[in-house]
Structure formats: structure tokens, C-alpha cells
Design brief:
The chain has 176 residues and is mainly alpha-helical. It folds into two domains: 47-137, Orthogonal Bundle (Arc Repressor Mutant, subunit A), CATH 1.10.10; 144-176. The chain is 64% helix and 9% strand. It contains seven helices and two strands. Strands 1-2 form a two-stranded antiparallel ribbon. Strand 1 and strand 2 (108-116) form a beta hairpin. Helix 2 crosses helix 6 and helix 3 packs across helix 6. The chain is elongated and about 65 Å long. 12% of the residues are buried. The mean pLDDT is 85.
């Protein structure tokens, strides 16, 4: 059976909204389910926050900086699981919002540490309350399966992270 390419100008080729469903190849894919769950969770979180600039990833960064003031961007990248280039843009935005400050390290002028400002601490206090309520809602949805659910998510992150690290090392060896 060959796939039909729809003509965007042919209204008869567009199925009715109630006839559209997720194809089996996606509905049975773990990656698709993870992405849908993440999108739903982020949307619910942002609805509670009311500020599109305070995405869940930014909450994570603020939380980590509250726990470990003075982290370098590399250390922060490793802890939050974001690549350094994406993190750099996020740190710039948080700095422009006055939520963090970056200071050169006295022991290494090429490196800098990141800390929360008083405004960052105030925003974090509000976000903590929102995150607790959001997590309580997620806990209610996951129910008694939470420990297993978290274990599977951690296993996915660890296994895929190891594979990603191995691929990056392999690429470096091929180039170098």
C-alpha cells in the first residue's frame, strides 16, 4: 500500500477532524509518548506560572543555583542535562532578567561562576510553590507506580546518555 500525498489545495483530501488519529507507529512509540507527556506537563506548569519566560528548565537552573551557588556553566550543564550552547543562551536571558549574576572566578579568570540574585531568589520562592503543586498533580496521576515510573525514566536517561557520550567520543576520535 503506497502513501498518498495530499494536495493542500484539495479540500476533499483533508480528513474530517474527528477522523484524524495518531498512527500506530507513533502511538506505540516510547519516544512519542515521552514527548507528549513532557509537552502536557510543561503546558500545565506554564499555565500555573503565567509567565512564558519561566519555563520548567529555567526553574531547574534556578533550583540548582540555589543549592550550589557559584557553579560554572559546564557544571550546571552536566547537572541539568542541557548542552552547553543551549544553556549559554538561557543563562544570558536569566542574566538580562536580573535573576542571576555571573562572576569571574579568582582562581581562573577564563571561568566564571553563576549565582542567584535577590530577584532570582524571590522568583524561585514563587516557582517552588508552583512546582510543588504541579508535582503533586503529577504524583496523583502516576499514583502508586511513581517509584517504578521514575526508575524507568532514570534508566532511559542513563542508558541514552551513555550512548550519546560514546557516540561523541567516537566522533572526536574520527576527526582527531
Amino acid at each position: 500500500m503506497s502513501a498518498r500525498i495530499a494536495d493542500p489545495d484539495d479540500a476533499s483530501a483533508v480528513p474530517a477532524a474527528d477522523a484524524v488519529r495518531i498512527p500506530d507507529v507513533l502511538s506505540n512509540a516510547v519516544a512519542y509518548a515521552l514527548r507528549r507527556a513532557q509537552e502536557a506537563s510543561f503546558a500545565a506548569y506554564l499555565q500555573r506560572v503565567g509567565n512564558p519566560d519561566l519555563k520548567p528548565g529555567r526553574y531547574t537552573i534556578l533550583m540548582l543555583l540555589a543549592e550550589y551557588p557559584g557553579l560554572t556553566p559546564s557544571e550546571l550543564s552536566a547537572l541539568c542535562g542541557r548542552d552547553r550552547s543551549t544553556l549559554t543562551a538561557t543563562l544570558r536571558a536569566l542574566d538580562e532578567q536580573g535573576l542571576i549574576e555571573r562572576k569571574r572566578r579568582s582562581e581562573d579568570q577564563r571561568s566564571y561562576g553563576v549565582r542567584l540574585t535577590s530577584a532570582g531568589n524571590a522568583v524561585l520562592a514563587q516557582l517552588r510553590m508552583i512546582a510543588r503543586a504541579h508535582d503533586a498533580r503529577l504524583d496523583a496521576i502516576v499514583g502508586e507506580d511513581k517509584a517504578v515510573f521514575l526508575a524507568v525514566l532514570r534508566r532511559l536517561a542513563e542508558q541514552l546518555g551513555v550512548e550519546e557520550d560514546q557516540q561523541a567520543d567516537h566522533q572526536k576520535r574520527r576527526v582527531g
